[in-house]
Amino acid sequence: MRFWFFWAPHFVIVGGAVYDVAARGYRPTWRDFRVATVAGVVYAALVLPFNLLTDLNYGYVGESAPGQPSLVDALGPWPGRVGVMLTLGVVVMTLLMVPWEILRRRGATE
Q1: d(CA 27, CA 83)
Q2: Domain that holds residue 90
Q3: Is 90 part of a structural domain of the chain?
Q4: Are the C-beta atoms of 37 and 43 separated by less than 8 Å?
Q5: Percent of residues in the chain assigned helix, strand, coil, to nearest 5
Q6: Is the pTM of the predicted complex or chain greater than 0.85?
Q7: Is residue 77 part of a domain?
Q8: Quick check: is 13 in a domain?
Q9: What is the pLDDT of residues 87-97, one digit of tens each?
Q10: What tens digit of pLDDT does each residue of 12-64 get?
Q11: Residues 86-93: contacts with CB within 8 Å, 24+ apart?
Q12: What stretches of the chain adopt beta strand conformation (E)?
């Protein structure tokens, strides 16, 4: 049950996004991109000091626990990897926007 309690909320997030696109006809815009980018930076700016004060690692923007390495550790030493994570997030979101921009320019959306 612990497995399902962990993964169910993750599925709901991704499933909700897929549902919005497939069933409700949502088409992301560059405004949505800007909002998501600002939200990610604000999240990191709020969570990082919290992690420092509490010695936690919410959002993987804190220092990793010894003996519990994660994939994020491959992005370099902390705290420099926070910038790498934010940069990668913007790059990935930009790549996700490209197909929608191509469709929009062809007049296939909206």
Answers
A1: 28
A2: 28-106
A3: yes
A4: no
A5: 75, 0, 25
A6: no
A7: yes
A8: no
A9: 999 999 999 99
A10: 999 999 999 999 999 999 999 999 999 999 999 999 999 999 988 888 888 88
A11: 86/40, 86/41, 86/44, 89/37, 89/40, 90/37, 90/40, 93/33, 93/36, 93/37
A12: none
